[in-house]
């Protein structure tokens, strides 16, 4: 579960920077990003399930919400990438969908990147 989550996260971040940051709207990169966000989401679900009844050795506290941040990050980037991959029309959903997914991306990214530097999510 940790390998899928971490591997999917690293690959998703690199691909998201290429696809959405640099605007390389390539169908192959879009499908690769969809695959990696799906892998990350599945890994995050397994991490979440493990934390439902955590063993004593598992860190608790603020780290208990990390799987939710990982799922928000991966699900939001998955949905944002569907038009790039050609699965949905380019302007699907309009500004309402952009705002909702933007909040999901912001939540996931802020906890992943800022939380790591502050010692917790």
Automatic annotation (TrEMBL):
Q: What keywords sit in the KW lines?
A: Membrane, Transmembrane, Transmembrane helix
Q: Does the keyword Membrane apply?
A: yes
Which residue windows are transmembrane per the record?
A: 28-48, 69-88, 94-114
Indicate yes or no for the key word Plastid.
Answer: no
| Pfam families hit by this protein | DUF3483
- Ranges where the Csal-0991-like N-terminal domain occurs: 2-121
Designated name of the protein: Iron-sulfur cluster-binding protein
